[in-house]
Every structure is written in structure tokens, then in C-alpha cells.
């Protein structure tokens, strides 16, 4: 990974899948990294990184080069009860608001906030390729992303550059969607979900970290940026590649059967998380010259599996 010019960094949610790797890379490059966590005493961090409680945010932001906001309750960790949905939304709104509020006490402010969002912003779409100019979609996840992005926009009036990174499904060895999708395939239980035509917009964790670093350092990155590989594919194609890499079959189950089973197993989240999707294209990042190392799903899965 290329050396960054970032010296003093604050990362909220730095103990999660994306944050851990980002913090590791920054710390390896010699940056001083402050991870803001609800449980700083439990955070295990690389050398060069320290965990702090949220109340220390204003002091941590003083003189920082950049802040990465990745904090929020796991979207797919539990079934979506009304309470769970409220927690998913509120955790993002409140974390982002705390950053905005903390900034008013900071005299030497960071020049950029890189705020996570998700391709869920676009809602469910058919086969249309969506770039950053596409409008917001419908449904719970789309509403969460819109509210989250809107909350972050308040930093712009303080003269801080805002990058809203709309993450696709992050593919990583360490956790997230890939191990969950690979498990049934390894157990000879793999199949296409629903029609299989729904878009699967993904990004390899390493490319995402490179994109985060680039977004923080390059002033031309501003506004919404799709953090997805340039080859969104259908869920069916992705599962096919996954099964091939794992040397396992995929069962041709009737779409109605997988749809019903997923809804029974996962409830409301089955539809937006697995049975619907969107083909999202990283037009802005490519236009700014970003080069994906893992632009093709074959290459990404060969590296990860
Ligand atoms: N991974 C993906 O495929 C993906 C795709 C699209 C968007 N995203 C978004 O990108 C961000 C980073 O993803 P990730 O996979 O690294 O997430 P993650 O592994 O779930 O980590 C998120 C972090 O947020 C913090 N957090 C959890 N609940 C919180 C709450 N109620 N209040 C404040 N902080 C809370 C936790 O840190 P502490 O326990 O230390 O406080 C946790 O480590 C997330 O917001 C996620 O929604 C991820």
C-alpha cells in the first residue's frame, strides 16, 4: 500500500471490519491513530493506535489531519425488530452528530471527514448501472443512508471537505459478508438467492482502504463517491464464482423456495439485503484516476479464498 501523508488521524468505529484494517495500515505507516470506541478498554489495536471514549472526541480532533466515521450498529447482525431498526439508524445519526458538535470546540480542525455510507442509498434497482448522479431510493436502508449522509453534511459549513463513501459489500477474509456466504457453499448447501439477477456491488477490503486513504488526501474527492469495484455482477454470477473457487456445486433451487426460506430465516432484512440489489458503478473514483487492484470478482475471490 502506498505511503500516505496522513499523520494524525481519528477513526470512529475503528474496531470494526473496515476500521481495524484502516487503523492497521495507517499505524504501519507511522501515523498517530486515535480510535474512538464505546469500549476503549476492550479494543485491541496495533502499535501506534490508541483507543479513547467518545467524550474525548473534541481533544482528539484538535490538529488532526482527517477523521474517518465508520461507526454504527451492524446492519445484518440481528433480525430487524422495530427496536433494532431504530438502533441501526440512531447509532449512525448520533455518532455523526457527535462529530459535528465536537468540531465546534476544535480550533485547528481536520480538513476532511470521510464518512461511511452504503450503496443501500440507491435502494433496489433492476439492471440499470447506477453512478453517483442517481437519486436516493426507497426502503429502510435507503432512508438510513440518506439521513446519515445528511447529518454529515453539516461539517461543510465549517469549511471541512466531506467525502460520503457509499460502500458496496466489503469482501474480506476477516469477516463481513464473504465468510457468511461461503459457509453454506462449503457445506454443499450453496444456491442462488431468489431470481439471482439482483445486482451485487462489492469491493475488496484492500481496495476500500486504498480508496479511503486517497479520499482523505486528494482534495478532488468530495461529495458522494461509490466505493464499489468497477464490475458489479448479478448475485447468481457471484455465487457461481464463489462455488467454483470452493470446488462445490450450486443447487438450482426454484427462486420462490429460496425467497420463502430466506424470509422465514431472516425476516424483513432478507428482501433488501439479499433478494434485491443494485448494479453500482464507481464513476467518480475512476474519473479521479483511482486504480482498483481487484476490479474483477475472479481476482478478488482468488486472493481472499
Ligand atoms: N462491511 C460492509 O460490507 C459494509 C457495506 C456497506 C456499508 N458499511 C458501513 O461501513 C461502516 C464500517 O463497516 P464495518 O463492516 O467495519 O462495520 P462493523 O464491523 O460493524 O463496525 C462498526 C463499528 O461501529 C461501532 N458501533 C457499533 N454500534 C455502535 C453504536 N451504537 N454507537 C457507536 N458506535 C457503534 C463499533 O465500534 P465500538 O464497539 O468500538 O464502539 C463497531 O466496531 C459501517 O457503518 C457500515 O454500516 C459496511
Number of domains: 1
Computed over alpha carbons, the radius of gyration is 19 Å
Tell me the distance between the termini: 20 Å
- Biggest sheet, strands in spatial order? 3-2-1-4-5-7-11
What's the helix count? 11
Taken in chain order, the helices and strands follow as: EHEEHEHEEHEEHEEHEEHHHEHH
- Described by the principal axes of the CA atoms, the overall outline is globular
Secondary structure category? alpha/beta
Share of β-strand residues: 15-25%
Which terms would index this structure?
single chain, 305 residues, alpha/beta, Rossmann fold, two-stranded parallel ribbon, binds NADP nicotinamide-adenine-dinucleotide phosphate
What does this structure look like?
The chain is an alpha/beta fold and 305 residues long. It has a single domain (8-304), classed as NAD(P)-binding Rossmann-like Domain (Rossmann fold, 3-Layer(aba) Sandwich). The protein has helices at residues 17-28, 57-61, 82-103, 140-152, 177-186, 205-217, 235-245, 255-266, 270-275, 283-287, 297-304; strands spanning 8-12, 32-36, 49-52, 66-69, 112-118, 129-130, 161-167, 169-171, 199-200, 202-204, 223-227, 233-234, 279-280. The strands form 4 sheets. Strands 3-2-1-4-5-7-11 form a 7-stranded parallel beta sheet, sandwiched between helices. Strand 4, helix 3 and strand 5 (112-118) form a beta-alpha-beta unit. Helix 7 runs parallel beside helix 11 (297-304). The two termini are 20 Å apart. The mean pLDDT is 96. NADP nicotinamide-adenine-dinucleotide phosphate is lined by residues 13, 15-19, 37-39, 43, 70-75, 91, 95, 116, 118, 167, 169-170, 176-177. NADP nicotinamide-adenine-dinucleotide phosphate (NAP) is lined by residues 13, 15-19, 37-39, 43, 70-75, 91, 95, 116, 118, 167, 169-170, 176-177.
Amino acid at each position: 500500500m502506498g505511503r500516505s501523508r496522513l499523520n494524525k488521524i481519528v477513526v470512529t468505529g475503528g474496531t470494526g471490519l473496515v476500521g481495524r484494517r484502516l487503523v492497521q495500515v495507517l499505524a504501519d505507516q507511522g501515523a498517530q491513530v486515535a480510535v474512538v470506541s464505546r469500549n476503549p478498554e476492550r479494543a485491541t489495536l496495533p502499535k501506534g493506535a490508541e483507543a479513547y471514549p467518545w467524550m474525548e472526541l473534541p481533544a482528539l480532533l484538535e490538529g488532526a489531519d482527517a477523521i474517518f466515521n465508520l461507526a454504527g450498529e451492524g446492519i445484518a447482525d440481528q433480525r430487524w425488530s422495530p427496536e433494532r431498526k431504530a438502533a441501526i439508524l440512531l447509532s449512525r445519526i448520533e455518532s455523526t452528530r457527535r462529530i459535528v458538535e465536537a468540531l465546534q470546540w476544535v480550533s485547528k480542525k481536520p480538513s476532511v471527514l470521510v464518512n461511511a455510507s452504503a450503496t443501500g442509498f440507491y435502494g433496489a434497482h433492476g439492471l440499470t448501472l447506477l453512478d453517483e448522479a442517481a437519486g436516493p431510493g426507497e426502503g429502510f436502508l435507503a432512508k438510513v443512508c440518506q439521513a446519515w449522509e445528511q447529518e454529515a453534511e453539516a461539517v461543510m459549513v465549517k469549511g471541512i471537505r466531506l467525502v460520503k463513501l457509499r460502500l458496496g459489500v466489503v469482501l474480506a477474509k476477516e469477516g463481513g459478508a464473504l465468510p457468511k456466504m461461503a459457509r453454506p457453499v462449503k457445506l454443499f448447501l450453496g444456491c442462488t438467492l431468489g431470481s439471482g439477477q439482483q445486482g451485487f456491488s462489492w469491493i475488496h477490503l484492500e481496495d476500500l482502504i486504498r480508496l479511503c486513504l486517497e479520499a482523505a488526501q486528494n482534495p478532488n474527492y468530495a461529495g458522494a463517491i461509490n466505493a464499489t469495484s468497477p464490475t458489479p455482477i448479478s448475485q447468481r454470477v457471484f455465487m457461481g464464482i464463489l462455488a467454483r473457487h470452493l470446488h462445490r456445486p450450486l443447487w438450482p433451487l426454484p427462486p420462490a423456495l429460496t425467497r420463502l426460506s430466506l424470509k422465514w430465516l431472516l425476516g424483513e432484512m432478507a428482501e433488501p439485503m439479499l433478494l434485491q440489489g443494485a448494479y453500482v458503478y464507481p464513476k467518480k473514483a475512476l474519473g479521479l484516476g483511482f486504480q482498483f487492484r481487484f476490479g474483477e470478482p475472479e481476482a478478488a475471490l482468488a486472493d481472499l479464498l
